[in-house]
From TrEMBL:
Biological source species: Variovorax guangxiensis
Region (Disordered): 230-252
Protein name: Pimeloyl-ACP methyl ester carboxylesterase
Biased composition (Polar residues): 230-239
Pfam families: Abhydrolase_6 (PF12697)
Superkingdom of source: Bacteria
Length: 252
């Protein structure tokens, strides 16, 4: 996989790395063009950014998880990054999630913006059952090998009163008119409301830009000159700084 590093400080490596996975048929440099890297720098976060050319063919060939791990995650860990977050848009969000399925605990956090979450028919089955809290995954042999068969049971781990320490923190953002919104809402109900953001609109860069800026405001990332940054809750945001993307607890 081709990658391009955007360091927070050109003179030294940060301890934290944000790995960006683009949507289908999008180019990794679009994250820079659309202000994603600028948003990190504006907040003076000590987090380097790595733009990954995760071509859609990797998903069709089902090689994304292995290649992402062996060509990106492992080499970056070897370089000394202590904390690695995956940031994915659309199918890139799906890629981040299925990577966690294949390599549990290998990253520290995931930001999934408008992620593809599998087939609508499976989402409809979960909704009919009353949502993820009520749905029971079928036992026995699976009818097919599609990743979403394992993805939804994985999401149920976030419902636990005491999730595993190896379970990465997951942030979700989506437009309320997004074509995948029905599945997004199912996942949203499994996450803490302060980790879910919504916005009016559909499946495009204007929504993703705003969602990223607002999710970025609450991510527990280190700030330049400080070893750590406390998570900002929605109640701590001053009225003049209130994000346009709405936390799920308010939007629901």
């Amino acid at each position: 996989m081709k990658t391009h590093l955007q360091p927070a400080n050109p003179n030294e490596q940060s301890d934290t790395l944000l790995v960006f996975l683009p949507g289908a048929y999008l180019k990794p440099d679009e994250f820079e063009r659309e202000g994603f890297i600028a948003a990190v720098r504006e907040r003076h976060l000590a987090a380097d950014a790595l733009l990954v050319d995760a071509d859609v063919s990797y998903y069709y060939e089902q090689t994304l998880s292995d290649r992402l791990h062996t060509e990106v995650i492992e080499p970056q860990r070897a370089k000394g990054y202590k904390s690695i977050w995956l940031v994915g848009i659309s199918i890139g969000g799906f890629g981040a999630l299925i990577h966690e399925l294949a390599r549990p605990g290998s990253v520290d956090g995931i930001v999934a913006l408008a992620p593809y979450l599998g087939r609508r028919v499976l989402g409809a089955e979960i909704k009919k059952a009353g949502g993820l809290r009520a749905w029971q995954a079928p036992t026995g042999p699976l009818p097919d090998e599609e990743p979403d068969r394992k993805l939804w049971p994985f999401f149920q781990q976030y419902l636990s009163a005491k999730p595993s320490k190896n379970l990465p923190r997951l942030y979700l953002g989506f437009g309320l008119e997004d074509r995948f919104a029905s599945n997004h809402k199912l996942l949203a109900d499994a996450l803490p409301p302060e980790q879910v953001f919504t916005i009016e609109g559909g499946h495009d860069w204007p929504q993703w830009r705003q969602l990223w800026r607002n999710v970025l405001d609450v991510l527990p990332l280190p700030a330049v000159g400080r070893p750590s940054k406390q998570t900002i809750t929605q109640s701590q945001v001053a009225p003049s700084q209130a994000p346009k993307a709405t936390p799920w607890a308010i939007a629901a």
